[in-house]
Amino acid sequence: xxxxxxxxxxxxxxxxxxxxxxxxxxxxxxxxxxxxxxxxxxxxxxxxxxxxxxxxxxxxxxxxxxxxxxxxxxxxxxxxxxxxxxxxxxxxxxxxxxxxxxxxxxxxxxxxxxxxxxxxxxxxxxxxxxxxxxxxxxxxxxxxxxxxxxxxxxxxxxxxxxxxxxxxxxxxxxxxxxxxxxxxxxxxxxxxxxxxxxxxxxxxxxxxxxxxxxxxxxxxxxxxxxxxxxxxxxxxxxxxxxxxxxxxxxxxxxxxxxxxxxxxxxxxxxxxxxxxxxxxxxxxxxxxxxxxxxxxxxxxxxxxxxxxxxxxxxxxxxxxxxxxxxxxxxxxxxxxxxxxxxxxxxxxxxxxxxxxxxxxxxxxxxxxxxxxxxxxxxxxxxxxxxxxxxxxxxxxxxxxxxxxxxxxxxxxxxxxxxxxxxxxxxxxxxxxxxxxxxxxxxxxxxxxxxxxxxxxxxxxx
Length: 461
Known about the structure:
By secondary structure, this protein is of the alpha/beta class. The protein has 3 domains: 5-144 and 266-328, FAD/NAD(P)-binding domain; 154-263, FAD/NAD(P)-binding domain; 342-460, 2-Layer Sandwich (Enolase-like, domain 1), CATH 3.30.390.30. 30% of the residues lie in helices and 23% in strands. It has 12 helices and 21 strands. The strands form 5 sheets. Strands 1, 2, 3, 4, 5, 6 and 16 form a 7-stranded mixed sheet that branches. The protein has a 5-stranded antiparallel sheet with strand order 17-18-21-20-19, with helices on both faces. Helix 5 (180-191) links the parallel strand 8 (172-176) and strand 9. The radius of gyration is 24 Å and the shape is globular.
């Protein structure tokens, strides 16, 4: 059968764009459909605009620290939210246009329309009232913020999709959630001068991270002035004359100007016609794929957040590239999802790679722990008492460093390089033999010498 395309991609985010371009470069006829804007979550309403808000928020803290370094600021510093918001959107538009241009330059046909499967080889473009056929189909529709639809008054809250377009900056905000998106936006609002409350159903934020990291950042958030309420969720939200009143499950009432849900993300599979094509989903509603990103239907593949493997932009890009190598270059390639570095752009920021202490003890039994907390040099002249945490987890059997966890200034930048050492399986001696670069925060990573012993083990000695 003659198809309209060799490959049709649904979703023009980072993973879909990378796969489409690489496939087109082999001479394949490639089409791609995007229902919103080219660039996907990362470029339009995720990593990129969020990082610009992080920069702005960090400047807010820097202004308060400036007198310690002799700077006198004339008058009271004020934030022009509208200017910041619009500048960010200009940059988002620029990046989106670059993605579009790169696709066209590679020879990819772009369809600005929602797409849904009619069967394993047919795609209907609902916005264009058009049906196309393809030999191979790649689904890269990403994920979307979860909304608590069962909550009375849930329509009064926003998600990370809407936060970048606020007409004005609120004086008070409640951020619901305890994952990385929640704590990042709590830090952002706090740094921009907004009275911020973080509402979390658990006891300590960032479930799944190393316990020392969780406790350290939980304490740091409160020390920065963020009100953290744990063991509670919304039971009802009502509109008031000045904003909203949130009733919590613990009986508390909070008045606020803005409510933001950051309670998780879910694979965006709704309305894709996956059932018509016979594509199997996992129990969590993601597209089930094998290590080569192939779904239960042989000619249909999926990459990125819609597969719910690792929800990170660089991972989607690598999965998209591996798909193109496998299917269009006859070079079977599977991306290795182990030892992926990640960052949380809180204030202070977090950088982690490898196993947590609990994971390492479960996997290997005995491990050596090296960790330290200290006030960074930069804080000494400002009176800031915030501390840095650094932690290395070492497998006893062969002294390989299997985990590195940092909380402090520039932690994400440090972890990218530390990830090379962890990925390569270097030993603690390799780290020890590396000369320190002074004065830096990162030098602490190669000067950690004293093993940390859990109190319960010390007591048994």
